[in-house]
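Protein details
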Amino acid sequence: MTTASRTPLAPPPAVEKGFLGRYSFVILAVLLLLVLPLSLNIFRLGLAAKFLSLSFCAVGIVLTWGYGGILSLGQGLFFGLGSYMMAMFLKLESTSSGSSAQALSSFFGSNLPDFMTWNSVEELPWWWEPFNHLGFTIPAILFLPALLAFVLSYANFRRRIGEVYFSIVTLALSAILAIVIIGQQGVTGGVNGINDFSTFAGINLDEDKVKVGMYYVTCVLLLVCVLVGGFILRSRLGKVLVAIRDREDRVRFSGYDPAMFKAFIFAVAALFSSMGGAMFTLQVGLASPSLVGIVPSVEMVIYAAVGGRLSLVGAVYGAVLVGSAKTFFSENFVEYWMYFIGLLFVVIVMFLPDGLAGLLDKLTARKTTPVPADAGAATAGAAK
């Protein structure tokens, strides 16, 4: 094969090219930090915070799926880990701070979370003990899911397991974690999850001003994740990642280790998902196995698909749009809202394969593409 006949590596698409251009991040920041807080009541703002917590996962999926070619159907695994680790800290703090749970535990002569007392657990498990300390909980949320993701993915990619099989592996791991959580009811809360806590480091999470503050914290962390993702994609790492996505064999022959690059970006996505899970628990006051299994993991992929799998900013819009649509349809069409959501997904897949970001790219390209003045003359000359 000659050099001229080889298929060149596709260059990495410019991050957020189109989609309102380089101002897409600024527009997103203005919407999240100014427009929504000023236009929504405290209840709706809490719903927005919930959707934004889920969008952490969508941003990570854009990195892995859109630019890395790795379709993970198990991001709920890492979202759930972050959620449960935060819930463990909150539950232990609530148990030791004079809450109703602590009163119940004292009645039974123990200092355990209420669900452990109900299930006749006599001693706090050893792996719960470190979550008595915020100084351990925060680093654990940031590093343990990322480390787990790196080890699992590198072991798979090192053996050159195909993307389809890797998707099945991640899906299975997510389902396994949900089954384990439900089965170990005495130490995980089972199907009810972990709930009944209202303070974080002594701060009352039920106060309106605290809810608004948590919303802003969620927004800032999300914007930081988008910036980090954009920095990665613009760096040499991002270029190699896209090259691996398009022609992994040529990258390997060039001396790179594709498994290392793919495992790293997968770990970054796991970190984002874990952060989203922790913020979700703070906003909603619940860690549940329903957020870990197959269904939420697939929905997270849908968020990225709706927003555009090549757009970090679009993933945020996709998560908020899908979440808002579910809320609107469920409130106004109680019996039929699932059909509306299904129709929305079918329309996106069939007619908008690049998501909302791709649609806006096409619209802005049509408006900004200049038409040469001598185009008609050139066409006529060609016809002659």
Q: What stands out?
A: The longest strand covers residues 199-200. Residues 1-14, 99-109, 371-384 have pLDDT under 50 and may be disordered.
